[in-house]
Specification:
Blueprint: H1 14-23, H2 30-47, H3 54-64
Helix pairs in contact: 1-2, 2-3
Length: about 70
């Protein structure tokens, strides 16, 4: 059985971006969501992947949370 879609980050959904912002106690603003989307692109490139799992992205956001308001 394959991995289901809910295990992957959907960067087009604000509620998913807000989920990752809440996890690092950052404000749920359009600016922060845009930064998360940029961070997602960076991590995809770094890992040479087209999709990211929530746990992969959460770790990266935690490391980079100083970039967020």
């Amino acid at each position: 059985m394959g991995i289901s879609d809910h295990e992957y980050v959907n960067f087009s959904e604000n509620y998913e971006m807000n989920y990752h912002l809440k996890k690092v106690d950052k404000r749920q603003t359009e600016s922060n969501r845009a930064i998360l989307r940029d961070m997602g692109g960076e991590l995809k490139k770094k890992l040479d992947k087209t999709r990211l799992k929530h746990d992969e992205f959460s770790d990266y956001v935690s490391e980079q949370k100083g970039r967020l308001e």
